[in-house]
Design goal:
By secondary structure, this protein is α+β, with helices and mostly antiparallel strands. Helix content is 20%, strand content 47%. The chain contains 2 helices and 9 strands. A 5-stranded antiparallel β-sheet has the order 2-9-8-5-6. Strand 5 and strand 6 form a beta hairpin. The chain is globular and about 55 Å long. It starts with a helix and ends with a strand.
Amino acid sequence: MKIKEKVITTLSILLLGFISVSAEEVYLSHNKDMSQNKDNEIPIRVDFDQFDKQLRIDFKKSEDYTIMVSGPDGLVLNGLINTESCQRVRLDLKPYEEGDYEIVFYDNAGNIVDGSFYLKK
């Protein structure tokens, strides 16, 4: 009975490890005006979870952002987010086609932060 418990525990740990590493950070970059200031941190973190097909966006700074996500199907999301009331956004991409996707953020000062990721089916 103890061997069976060890096998189940080991498999559970391996499965949890697989699920946790399936999310990858989406590399974001500034537009050229922001990148000249080397101390300027990107105020947004984006992770894409291939397993759940979920895009998670975390905002580190309270500001209004226009967000656009586009892919093979065209525009997936186009909207204004007020981060004072919403610090985290999740976007379910299960209904969308496999392919390359781009995410772009615009703030009120005209700064642009963008990145891309690949959705596997």
